[in-house]
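Could you join me in thinking about how sequence relates to backbone shape in a protein? To get us started, please write out a protein record for me. Would you write everything just below, so we can both look at the same thing?
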Amino acid sequence: MRTIKQESVPASAWINDAKPVAASTDAMILVFQNEMHRGMIDDKFRTLTERAIASNNDHSYQIITLLNHQWEELKSNFRSNQSDEDQNSTQETEQAEVKEEEDRLITEAHKLVGEEFVHVIDDSPSNS
C-alpha cells in the first residue's frame, strides 16, 4: 500500500477498499466491496498495482479482482467440490480395502481346500 501511495495517491485511494484473500505462485486475488473501486484498479491502475506488489516480493503477481459476493460464491463452490472429492476419495479407499479383504479371503480359501473346490461368485452391486 505504501508503494502504491508513493507512486499515485489516487490509486492508493481506489485500492484502499481491496482485501487480498488468496494467492498462488503467480497470481493474487483482491476482493472489493465496491464495483467502482474494483473497476478502477482493474482498468486504470492494474499495471501500477502489479508493479508495486512485485517490488515488495521476489517476483511479480498477476492480480485478479473480484467483488466480495463473487469471492464468497467462488469460495463456497470450491469448498463444496473439495468436500465431494474427499467423500469420493474415502469411498474409493473403503472399496479398495473391501476388495483387498475379499482377495485375502479367496487366497486363504484356495490354500485351505484347493482351487478346484473354490468357486467365487461376484454379487457386488457394480457387477450386477
User: Anything to note?
Assistant: The beta strands are 19-23, 27-32, 62-67.
